[in-house]
Amino acid sequence: MSALAVGLALAVPAQAQDAAAIIGAEKARDAALQENIALDYVTQLTTRFGPRPAGSASETAAAEWAAGYMRDHGFRNVRIQEFPLVGWDRGEESAAIVGTNAQPLVVAALGHSPATPDGGLEAEVVRFSTLEAFQAVPDGSLAGKIAYVDAGQLVPMQTGAGYGPLTRIRGAGPALAGQKGAVAFIMRSVGSDEHRMPHTGTTRYVNGVVPVPAFALSAPDADQLSRLISYGEPVRMRLSSTARTYQTTSRNVIGDLPGRMRPEEIIVLGSHMDSWDLGTGAIDDGAGGAITLAAARAIADQGRTERTIRVILFGAEEVAQPVDTGNGGGAYLRSLSPEDLANHVFTGESDFGADRVYALQLPVGAQTGVFADAANRVLYPIGVLRSSEPELDGGVDIGPIVQAGVPVFGLKQDGLRYFDLHHTADDTLDKIDPEQLSQNVAAWAGLVSLVANSDVDFRAMVPATPTP
Ligand code: ZN
Ligand code: ZN
C-alpha cells in the first residue's frame, strides 16, 4: 500500500467528506457572494453607535442592539454574558514642542495611560531608535526626561507581520520608562500610513499599573520630532492628558444556529464588538462581526446544519487589564463545563479588517488529507489557497478556548492596508470595500459549512507527541 493510500485508509471515516457536504458548502459560498447582511450589519453598527470603547455606554448599547439583530436574523438562544472591566476614558490631550522651536504635535494617549499632572508636564526628550537601546540604559538614568522610541514605520505586508515587533514597544514602553525614571513615554505610532493620524492601542500593566503617561505620535509628527532632535539642540516637550480609568462591565453577545443532528457539537465564530474611541471601528472590528454573522446566515439558508454554529461578538478585546482575566474570551471559557469545552469542535476569529481572504490555515495535523482536499475544492475558486502552515493562534478573543484545546482555523486576510487605518480616526465605514467583504464572507461560509455538515474531528488529527 502506498503512503498515500495508507493515509486515506486511516482517514476514513473520521475525515469522510461526502459529496453532499461539498455541494452544500459550494452553495453556501455562492449564496454568501450574493448576500447583503454583512454590509448592512457593519453599516448600522458603525452609524448607530460610532466608537465603542470597551465598557462604555456605547459598547453596551451596541451589544443590546446586536442581540436584537441576531434574533431578527433567526439566531436562537441569543444571550448577553456580562463581566467586570476596568474601562478607560481618553479625556482631553495635547502635545507641543516648547522653547525656540515651539510647535504643536499630533498625539493620541495609549489605552489605559494615566493622566499627566494638572496643567501637563514639561521635560526634555531623549530618543531611542530601538526598544533594545532603550532597555539598555541604566534604571533611573532618564530621571525627569520624556523617553521617546522611534523604531521606524511599520512595513506594510500581506500577512501583517510587521505589527508584532512594534507592539512590543507599545506594550513594554510605558513600564520601562517608569523603570528608567522618565516622567512620560512617547513613541512613533504603530502604523504604515503617512497621515497625521496617531494610532492608539493598549499598553501593558506592570504590577497592576501603567507607570507613566504614554502617547503615540502620528508618523509625520514622529518624523518632525526625530529630525529636530538630530540637529543636536535639546528638545523640550509639553504633554497633557486628562485620561482616567473607571470600574464598569463589558459583555459578550452569543447567538446560535442549532444543529439538527449533533447540536451539542459547536463551531465558534468570533470577533469583537468594542473598538477604539478615535474612529468608528469599521475595520476593527465591526467587519469581523459582519463577516461571521453573514457567513453563518448564508450557511443556514441552505438548510439546518448537522452541528451548531455559534457566533460570538466578544466584549473588550482592545484593552489590557490590571489583572489579566482574558477579558471576553476568558469570561466565555469560564462559562463552559469541561464537557461543553470538549464539544467545541472548531473555532476561528475574524479581526483583520474586511479585505479579501487569500489563504486557509487548518488546525495542526489537518494540512493534508480528505478534509483539506475538500476545503481546497470549495475555496480555490474564490482565490483562497490552502496553506501548508497550521493555524496556531486564532486571535485574542478565541485565544482562551484555543489554549484550552479547541481546534483553530485561520482564514488569512490581505493586510496590506490594514495598518494604515488600524486604531486611528480613519477607521470608518467608507474603508470597507463591499466586493472584498463579499469574498471574505464567502470564504467563511464555504469552510464553516463543510465542517458544520460533517463529523470531521480535528482533535484526532493532531500528531502524537514523538516519544524519545
Ligand atoms: Zn481587533
Ligand atoms: Zn484593535
Your description of this structure?
The chain is α/β, with parallel strands linked by helices and 468 residues long. It has 2 domains: 3-87 and 247-461, Zn peptidases (Aminopeptidase), CATH 3.40.630; 91-242, Glucose Oxidase, domain 1, CATH 3.50.30.30. It is 34% helix and 22% strand. The chain has 14 helices and 16 strands. Strands 3-2-9-5-6-7-8-4 form an 8-stranded mixed β-sheet, with helices on both faces. A 5-stranded mixed β-sheet has the order 1-10-12-11-13, sandwiched between helices. A 3-stranded mixed β-sheet has the order 15-14-16, with helices on one face. A hairpin with a 4-residue loop joins strand 2 and strand 3 (103-105). Helix 3 runs antiparallel to helix 4 (57-72), helix 3 packs antiparallel against helix 8 and helix 11 (370-379) runs antiparallel to helix 14 (434-452). It is elongated. The chain starts with a helix and ends in a 16-residue tail after the last helix. The model is unreliable at 1-15 (pLDDT under 50). Residues 284, 318, 423 line the site of one zinc ion. Residues 272, 284-285, 317, 351 line the site of one zinc ion (ZN).
